[in-house]
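Quick question: what would this complex look like in 3D?
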Amino acid sequence: MSPLRQGTLDSVAATKTSARDDLSRTVPTPIRTRLLKTIVGFGVLLVVTCVVAPLVGSSPLNFARVFDRSIPFSDNVDAQIFFIARMPRIVAGAIAGAALAAAGVVFQALLRNALATPFTLGVSAGASLGAMLAIVLGATISAGPFSAVPVASLGGAAIAAAIVYRLATMQDRAMSTTVLLLAGVTLNSFFSALIMFVQYIADFAQVYRAIRWIMGDLDVGSFDPIVAALPMMAIAFAMFAWLPSSLNLLSIGADAASARGVDVGRTQRLAFVSASLATAAAVSLAGPIGFIGIVVPHLVRLMVGVDHRLVLPASALFGAAFLVMCDLAARTLLAPLEIPVGVITAMLGGPFFLWLLVRKG
Amino acid sequence: MLLASELSYGYSSARRNVRSFTLDHVSITVERGSLTGLLGPNGCGKTTLLNLLSGVLQPEHGHVSLNGAPLAGRTRRDIARHLAVVPQETHPAFDYTVMEMVLMGRHPHLGAFELEGPRDLALARDALAATGTEHLAGRAYMTLSGGEKQRVVIASALTQSPEVLLLDEPTASLDLGYQLEVAALLRRLNLERGVMMVLATHDLNLAASLCDRIILMRDGRVVAQGPTRDVLTAASIRRIYDVEADVSFHDAAGHVTVTPLRHVQ
């Protein structure tokens, strides 16, 4: 247990008052204080990250000059680079990171498995296949903020999620986590096989583009793709808001949750749909960037404990900051060469994942 | 009063490839304040009956009512405010603290976005005190011993402020010392708080020492129910377990004890 967490709990135990006394008091309860501290702490981290990250790049920007209101925007090159050239990428990283980390938290609770990721159930494999087909078939249609590759990846994700959902709910109203896991893992390999097949028959240039997409990429040039992904993100996060206390009970066990008043079937459906939606939206925006969905929730648990009412919002905020930082590393470490951000997260996340695995055993 | 009348339930065996089993027109009555034991061989339907009583499963026929109000049609949340369940074992997927586990009992009493307040904390501390687990409040649940875990789960169920506690073999995985400890706790909670309890168990001596009434089940039917000394007899044990046993009053224990002798066909 982390020292931080022990401290909070000691303070809980220290507030020794009898039942009668407590009834008349209006002091903020520990969970309220902890939630506030968590959101403020991680919120400040995110804001600082999002302001500092765009200042760094091929042409370093002056912070004071960027926010100098006395220079008209049309004359302020620093502000133009900050807001127009670099900000879309930062925002894309932040919302993709938030969505993947939060989806990771939800999938881990739904599957009662701390090693689950947003990609465990095949959503990203479906998305990758969809994107790959769009690239290989040379689809270039776009309408408003929507363009072919993200839309195709959303389609693939939706098909994958629908198949897994159907399989897991076939026998009962409540989901079988075993069937969910098995169906997801199987679907992952099946889609991977299809992806390999498409790679094999496609030509080199297309395959290179597709592989580049699968590595995860935040090279977003405008706010259009963000606008396209935003409605889905909004719906997913609105659904997330209903989940935390039910997820706590679900991770104790389905029967125990039911006995404590949780509508297990409804909670599982809400968790599955919202997390799949968030994952699909993030992947359509930035490609399947791995390991965010497992590294971030675990780091957050080390800091705030395992209560989902804290872990879920903290993971969303920290996931956003984490991906923006990883992307900063991706575009500066070997500048002017840009490393795909998925490579950075995987290089950090792989060893971390193994450490978790070993520590658990 | 917890009343089950003419409950029938069957698992659909063809699809799931499990042994088809039916609870067949089971009617039971648990009086207010009673600590009722539910006995019977493996697969006789004890757990199914508990799940029907707690509303986790819906009966195909018959109905369950608590204090005259039927459970059917009520939300899980509403039922959980009156009925709590203590399973044989609880394995959380994450490393919750004891206090967090106990506070989860408040879930049915809180609104969707409501965080627990001082009153909920007071109830949790009260439940920790009642189960003798106050000193464990800050500990991680997973690091506790079996007996401590079961006491914490009982504390969590108490935090639900239930009128009825349904216990499914709560002492099955515990050693002798912890069995006695949990038994003493249940007896005390029943006496002091008047919590009605239904206790499914294989431990005949635990039931003999603890329960004022016994329900005997076999093959999905109730074979006998009534006061412990009337129901827990050599003849009834033979009837439900095919076991010849010596049942006699033990002076030092202050209740009947069961000594199994041999299996008979």
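Answer marked as accepted. The mean pLDDT of chain B is 89.
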